[in-house]
Structure formats: structure tokens, C-alpha cells
């Protein structure tokens, strides 16, 4: 079964079980009373045949996703990020179902857009009611659009946290205008309001602990909170126009709307006060997330067992051990590496990453640790001996790589060749070269040597290079504290010989330049 199908099945099963269990818990007192007065089989059949609590369904959905992620080797945080917009839209459609079914209706309301249900509906008929299903549906559509835009911009890890935050605030407010009584109450708060408060509190604790699941981008979070604030203000302008809302509830609603700005103000202040918390964030979280192209041997790739290995991986693992954190290797789309780093999905790009002037403008780099060059790989029987022999040739290259930059930046090269074909991975480009699809592939010298030695393919490397360059570790712009901590460990490894040992393991010689 494909990953998506497996996730969907496990998520739906979890949602069905979770929604029903919470419904039974909320209605436990009624169930016990009915069991005393009625037939056991009839009561059980009645409560099992209908009734569902949305928050229970969401909890069960997460449990299903977590189980599927664990058993299928998926990243739970990324699964949540990928599916957050779909979850928001699914709940929106669910509220339309509530509207047509006559459940989850609003309280009596004399303001604009009131709903009047027909006779025979579970909702009171002929009475103007607050349109709570419609308001919730429209708000969730707005949230879905916002999350989808962020998802398209490659934001993943914080999307579910943003959805839960926005939905909890929205649901807390809307519960004040619900008229159906079968919801369960503790004091003057409904069960859903208590769960909403618990979710917001849990998110606050996880964010304070820098949990990887709710890792929040310092620029994105305040903007999202402020946007949600104005959405809530617009919705509650309608609610507060009703004379049915008592003064105390008006006051509570206004205070809660204003309070929803506080996280944004705090996050905005934290992003502008110049404090670099990058190292402390990693230490508090206990994980260091390394972004890589997992098909880039010998720097970082998957071995025959599917494990991510390589020179960079061994060095990073030793650095993490010395820092007292766990290394997490996160494969990324190399063509979107800058977005993955900027949005906080990873802590660094460490995978044969070339330093360029353009990248220095948007990232903070470590000192170079290995020298490299961009070279041309051709078939062994190719007549090509120099770059000049490539006139009119088709050149393969990995999209978004420094090899692609070298093609564009080498004077006269584009005028000499015929066509440039982009590939997702170097391995795919080399396969195309082997079958004659292209005439040469531009790639990193270290990677080219490893691929030729490992595969035994009849390739050779031209002596003439396009560019000479250096590998370094790329961090988010301004993450100087984290960069300095990693650099200090690299310097220590160079001094005690452990960096040299790792280099000899992978290259047969110490080719590192740290401290030299």
C-alpha cells in the first residue's frame, strides 16, 4: 500500500475511534442513566450508531498518523505539515454536513445572517439562530487557503501547530454561541472550550521547549497570528451585534480576541530584539536537523539497507555527540533547499554544499572543510578531451546545484555547448549519460570520483575543470551562535585527528582543510 493510502486509512480509523470514544466520555452520565432505565442492547446500539465529537476525531487522527509514520518510516512532523490544509478543509465540509443535518446549531440570535431551521429538524424550528456551522465553515476555508499558500511556499513543520492554534481560538469563541446542549460542560465552559484551552497551553509549552513538531519560524508566526486576529475580529463583529449576547460574554469575547495578539507581539519582539537563540534552540530541543540530498555519495546517501551514511554524516554525528544532541538527517528537495532552511524545517544544509557569493547573502556559513571542483564526466569511449570539444553537446546537470551555477558562470561555456538538461539527482544524470541521452555531466569532483569507483561504469573525468570551490555548512542567516558551536567542534576534531580518520575512511586520504 502506498504511503498516502496507508496514512489515509490509519488516519480515518483513528479519527472514527477517537471521535466516538470522546462522545461516549462526554455523555457518560446520560449513558449510565439510560442503562438504569432502559434495555442494555437498545442503549448500546443507540449510542454506538450516532454521535461524534470533533476534537476526539482530531486526536484519533493524530494517533493514526503517528502509528502510520512510525510503522512506515515517515517523518511525523512532516506528515502533519503536509496534511494540515486538508484537515482544515475536511472540518469545513463537516460543518456543512452539520448545517444540513440540523446539529451543532447556534443559540437564539437576532443579528444579521440568522438561520431559521424547518420543522422536523433537530434544531429548534422557526427560531432565528446564530449561524455557527456557516461561520465555522467560512473561517476554516480562510484558514485552509492560508495554510495552502504556506505549504506551496515549502513551509511544513509548523503548519499543524498554526492550524491547531487558529482552530482552538475560533472554536472557543464559537462555543459561546452554540445552542445544542449535548456537548458536556464543566462549570461554565463546554468540553470543547476546555480542550481548546488545553491545546493552546500544550502548544505554548511545546514552543517554549522548542519542540521539533511545532518548530515556529520567527518571521512567519507573528504574521499568521495577526492575520488570525483580524479574522476573529471580523467574525465577532457579527456576534457582538446580537442583543442575546450578555454583557459578560461580550467582555470575555473582546478580551480573548485582544489576548490572541499577545503571542504575535511576543514573537515579533523576539525576532527583532537581535538575540541569537539558534544554539540554545537546538540544545533545548535535543536534536540537530541536517538537511541533505540523500543521493549524493560519498558525502551523504542511502546504503543498501536504506540507512543514510557518508562522510558528512559521520562528521555531523561526531559533532552532535560532542554537543550532546541527537543528529536527525532530513532528506530535502535540493532545488528548494533555501526555503527548507529559511522556514525552519532544518537547522543547516550539510551535504557537499558549495560556498558562493550569492549564498553568502542569504546564509551564514562555517569555514570551508573540503576543497572541490566542478568537472565534466563523459563516457569512456567519448571523443571529447577538452571543453572545446563539447561544441553543440547536450550537458546534464542536477537542478539547483552549484554545478548548474558553474555552467552559467563559466565565460563562453553556454555559447559552446548545445543544450543543458536538468535532472533531479546526479545519479539520474549519470544513467542518462550511460545510455547516450547526454554527452557529458557537470558535477562535483568528489562525487564524480566516488560514483565512478563505486559503480565501475566506463566513465572518465576531463582534466579541465569549470570552477574550483569549497564545501562548507550553510546555516540560517544570523544563526551565528549555532555556526560557531559547530565550527568549534570541527576545529577540535581537526586538532585531535578524528576528522582526519573520517576522511581516510571515505576518501583514502585526509583531504580536509580545517585548520590547515
UniProtKB/TrEMBL annotation:
Subcellular location: Cell envelope
GO terms under cellular component: cell envelope; plasma membrane
Keyword Aminoacyl-tRNA synthetase in record: no
PROSITE patterns, per database record: SBP_BACTERIAL_3
Signal sequence coordinates: none
PANTHER family reported in the protein's UniProt record: AMINO-ACID-BINDING PROTEIN YXEM-RELATED, MEMBRANE-BOUND LYTIC MUREIN TRANSGLYCOSYLASE F
Family recorded in the similarity comment: Belongs to the bacterial solute-binding protein 3 family.
Protein name stated in the entry: Transporter substrate-binding domain-containing protein
Natural source organism: Candidatus Aphodenecus pullistercoris
Lineage, broadest ranks: Bacteria, Pseudomonadati, Spirochaetota, Spirochaetia, Spirochaetales
Amino acid at each position: 500500500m502506498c504511503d498516502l493510502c496507508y496514512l489515509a486509512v490509519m488516519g480515518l480509523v483513528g479519527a472514527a475511534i477517537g471521535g466516538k470514544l470522546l462522545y461516549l466520555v462526554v455523555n457518560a452520565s446520560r449513558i449510565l442513566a439510560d442503562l438504569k432505565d432502559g434495555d442494555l442492547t437498545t442503549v448500546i446500539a443507540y449510542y454506538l450508531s450516532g454521535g461524534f465529537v470533533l476534537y476526539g476525531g482530531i486526536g484519533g487522527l493524530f494517533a493514526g498518523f503517528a502509528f502510520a509514520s512510525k510503522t512506515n518510516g515517515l517523518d511525523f512532523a512532516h506528515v502533519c505539515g503536509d496534511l494540515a490544509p486538508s484537515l482544515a478543509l475536511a472540518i469545513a465540509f463537516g460543518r456543512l454536513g452539520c448545517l444540513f443535518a440540523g446539529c451543532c446549531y447556534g443559540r437564539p440570535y437576532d443579528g444579521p445572517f440568522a438561520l431559521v431551521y424547518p420543522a422536523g429538524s433537530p434544531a429548534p424550528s422557526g427560531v432565528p439562530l446564530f449561524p455557527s456551522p456557516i461561520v465555522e465553515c467560512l473561517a476554516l476555508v480562510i484558514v485552509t487557503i492560508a495554510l495552502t499558500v504556506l505549504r506551496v511556499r515549502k513551509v511544513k513543520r509548523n503548519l499543524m501547530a498554526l492550524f491547531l492554534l487558529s482552530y482552538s481560538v475560533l472554536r472557543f469563541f464559537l462555543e459561546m454561541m452554540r445552542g445544542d446542549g449535548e456537548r458536556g460542560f464543566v462549570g461554565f465552559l463546554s468540553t470543547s472550550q476546555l480542550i481548546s484551552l488545553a491545546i493552546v497551553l500544550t502548544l505554548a509549552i511545546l514552543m517554549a521547549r522548542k519542540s521539533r513538531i511545532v518548530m515556529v519560524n520567527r518571521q512567519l508566526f507573528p504574521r499568521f497570528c495577526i492575520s488570525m486576529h483580524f479574522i476573529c475580529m471580523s467574525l465577532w463583529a457579527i456576534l457582538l451585534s446580537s442583543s442575546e449576547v450578555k454583557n459578560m460574554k461580550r467582555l470575555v469575547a473582546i478580551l480573548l480576541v485582544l489576548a490572541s495578539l499577545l503571542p504575535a507581539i511576543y514573537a515579533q519582539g523576539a525576532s527583532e530584539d537581535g538575540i541569537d537563540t539558534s544554539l540554545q534552540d537546538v540544545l533545548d530541543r535535543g536534536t540537530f536537523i541536517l538537511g541533505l540530498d540523500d543521493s549524493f555519495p560519498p558525502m551523504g546517501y542511502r546504503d543498501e539497507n536504506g540507512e543514510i551514511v557518508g562522510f558528512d554524516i559521520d562528521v555531523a554525528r561526531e559533532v552532535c555527540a560532542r554537543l550532546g544532541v541527537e543528529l536527525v538527517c532530513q532528506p530535502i528537495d535540493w532545488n528548494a533547499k533555501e526555503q527548507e532552511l529559511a522556514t525552519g524545517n532544518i537547522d543547516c544544509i550539510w551535504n557537499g554544499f558549495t560556498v558562493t557569493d550569492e549564498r553568502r547573502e542569504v546564509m551564514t556559513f562555517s569555514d570551508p572543510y573540503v576543497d572541490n571542483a566542478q568537472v565534466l564526466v563523459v563516457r569512456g569511449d567519448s571523443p571529447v578531451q577538452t571543453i572545446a570539444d563539447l561544441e553543440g553537446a547536450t550537458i546534464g546537470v542536477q537542478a539547483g546545484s552549484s554545478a548548474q551555477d558553474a555552467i552559467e558562470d563559466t565565460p563562453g561555456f553556454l555559447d559552446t555547448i548545445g543544450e543543458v538538461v536538468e535532472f533531479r539527482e546526479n545519479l539520474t544524470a549519470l544513467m542518462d549519460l550511460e545510455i547516450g541521452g547526454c554527452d557529458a555531466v557537470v558535477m562535483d569532483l568528489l562525487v564524480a570520483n566516488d560514483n565512478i569507483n563505486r559503480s565501475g561504469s566506463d566513465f572518465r573525468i576531463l582534466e579541465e575543470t569549470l570552477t574550483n570551490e569549497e564545501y562548507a555548512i550553510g546555516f540560517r542567516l544570523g544563526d551565528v551562535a549555532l555556526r560557531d558551536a559547530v565550527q568549534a567542534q570541527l576545529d577540535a576534531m581537526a586538532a585531535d585527528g578524528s576528522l582526519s580518520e573520517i576522511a581516510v575512511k571515505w576518501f583514502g586520504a585526509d583531504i580536509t582543510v580545517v585548520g590547515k
